[in-house]
Specification:
It is a single chain. With 122 residues, the protein is mainly alpha-helical. The chain has a domain of 77 residues. The protein is 48% helix and 3% strand. A two-stranded antiparallel sheet has the order 1-2. Strand 1 and strand 2 form a beta hairpin. The N and C termini lie far apart (70 Å). It binds zinc ion (ZN). Zinc ion binds next to helix 4.
Amino acid sequence: MTDLVMSMEESFQEYFAALERSGNKDRCYICCRTPADVKRFLGFNEDGTPIEAREYGLEDVVLPPKLDVMSYRGERPVCVVCQLNFDGIFMLDEQDVLRRVIAEMERRREHLWPEPPPAEAP
Ligand SMILES: [Zn+2]
């Protein structure tokens, strides 16, 4: 088997194993974006061509097909947008702040997100 076929087979195995771990959801575990959502967020159509290419004269720019927008190698699928956001937090050495934010989101939801005012009775 060629290296390309081997790596494609490994990629498929990683993909299907990750989907199995995530209950067959091909979405980022953190932000719930699908791969198509991630491409759209980055400014590309699902086929890798830029959105509004004509307006900006970007006909020749295409997202490389090899560019991964989702990682399926870990415990759950994670998108490149979340990875970059976390990279920024880690570069700032704010892992402890992140843990406190997660703890607040878990245990102090009502404090963070006050209840909306009750709807008026009809
Ligand atoms: Zn994400």
